[in-house]
């Protein structure tokens, strides 16, 4: 159902809900209800104390949020648009909670679904969809963020086994995961391996003192002569195309999720501006405040339409990688600007966790950086427009 303000104005400025099916609206309503009941009442405390609430993982699984775009193996098999709508609602709660769903489903589970053997899929996907096992995705390294082709983690053959050594950084969920998808250089190029986190030599340490994504887990991983059998290799992934296909799944969810953070910030300050009196009338009655609200509403509407178009292309099997970059670059850039502007309407109250915009803005500093920085996506789009590769 379309939300309206107390003065009767629709928050759906362009009537975008009319472009969604009844099933899509129903799914969005269920996820929004989950966020309202399980995340909103608790997120300030989780964020303040830097806690990721593992207790909500089974509830996410029950809602069908884990690996929801994957078909078979106990996974929900929902459409790209439905997954996008879920990501938007989750990130309206907090980026860290949407990131859990992304790391679990778009990265770890997608790697197994796209590139794993039947045995690997049957072993892990049903458990991960049910929230009984958590996965992580080890690609980024301390010296190789935007340039994974220069990763130093190496897997060498030793008889029938592989022995992996190296380090990974900013790996979501690694300290609570049961399985890690580890990308490593080999004599035959980059390959992926499924490494149970209890394997000797595997060590994950949570990164602390973060200023962003505090209700989330990111880790350093140390791999010291980690021995796995040949069956641990993902047979369908060879070269960087393997991890990049998973990254594009995660980037797609961000396109929607960023607009959720922006929308929540906008709705928060729209309500606040209608109630907060300054100089004997509400903030919403001042021209400068109305200009801010109008600019926010326009960019949220445009960003949501962009996400929906990309989702429809994905469902039709017509999505191209430069279109994902267009969505990720635009929506993250606009969302962070909206959240920062929303904070100005709140004045000093906006720097507390009583209100969401500055929390969202801080989180979006991470979202804007991971799965490809603004600069990386600009270069992808530049190459598409000019035909000239300018990465080096």
UniProtKB/TrEMBL annotation:
One of its GO terms (molecular function) is fatty-acyl-CoA binding. Pfam families: Acyl-CoA_dh_1, Acyl-CoA_dh_M, Acyl-CoA_dh_N. Residues 136-226 form the Acyl-CoA oxidase/dehydrogenase middle domain. Keywords: FAD, Flavoprotein, Oxidoreductase, Transit peptide. Residues 22-132 form the Acyl-CoA dehydrogenase/oxidase N-terminal domain. The keyword Cell membrane does not apply. Residues 238-385 form the Acyl-CoA dehydrogenase/oxidase C-terminal domain. The keyword Flavoprotein applies. SUPFAM superfamilies: Acyl-CoA dehydrogenase C-terminal domain-like, Acyl-CoA dehydrogenase NM domain-like. Belongs to the acyl-CoA dehydrogenase family. This is Acyl-CoA dehydrogenase.
């Amino acid at each position: 159902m379309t939300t309206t303000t107390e003065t009767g104005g629709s928050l759906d400025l362009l009537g975008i809900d009319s472009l969604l099916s009844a099933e899509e609206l129903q799914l969005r309503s269920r996820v929004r209800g989950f966020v309202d009941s399980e995340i909103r009442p608790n997120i300030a405390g989780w964020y303040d104390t830097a806690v990721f609430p593992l207790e909500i993982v089974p509830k996410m699984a029950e809602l069908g949020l884990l690996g929801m775009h994957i078909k078979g193996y106990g996974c929900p098999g929902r459409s790209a648009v439905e997954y996008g709508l879920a990501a938007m609602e989750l990130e309206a709660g907090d980026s860290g909670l949407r990131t859990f769903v992304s790391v679990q489903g778009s990265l770890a589970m997608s790697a197994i679904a796209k590139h794993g053997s039947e045995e690997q899929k049957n072993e892990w996907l049903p458990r991960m969809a049910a929230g009984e096992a958590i996965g992580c995705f080890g690609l980024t390294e301390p010296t190789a963020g935007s340039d994974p082709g220069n990763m130093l983690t190496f897997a060498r053959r030793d008889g029938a086994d592989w022995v992996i050594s190296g380090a990974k950084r900013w790996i979501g969920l690694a300290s609570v995961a049961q399985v890690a998808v580890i990308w490593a250089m080999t004599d035959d190029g980059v390959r992926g391996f499924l490494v149970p986190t209890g394997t000797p030599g595997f060590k994950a340490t949570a990164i602390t003192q973060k200023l962003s994504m505090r209700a989330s887990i990111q880790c350093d991983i140390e791999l010291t002569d980690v021995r796995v059998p040949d069956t641990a290799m993902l047979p369908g992934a060879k070269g960087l195309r393997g991890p990049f296909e998973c990254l594009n799944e995660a980037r797609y969810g961000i396109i929607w999720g960023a607009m959720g953070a922006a929308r929540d910030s906008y709705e928060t300050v729209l309500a606040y501006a209608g109630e907060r009196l300054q100089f004997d009338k509400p903030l919403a009655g001042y021209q400068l405040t109305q200009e801010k609200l109008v600019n926010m509403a326009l960019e949220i509407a445009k960003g949501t339409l962009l996400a929906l178009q990309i989702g429809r292309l994905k469902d039709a099997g017509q999505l191209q990688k430069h279109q994902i970059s267009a969505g990720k670059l635009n929506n993250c850039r606009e969302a962070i600007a909206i959240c920062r502007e929303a904070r100005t309407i709140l004045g000093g109250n906006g720097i507390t966790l009583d209100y969401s915009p500055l929390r969202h803005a801080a989180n979006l500093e991470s979202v804007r950086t991971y799965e490809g920085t603004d600069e990386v996506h600009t270069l992808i789009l530049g190459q598409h427009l000019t035909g000239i590769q300018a990465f080096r």
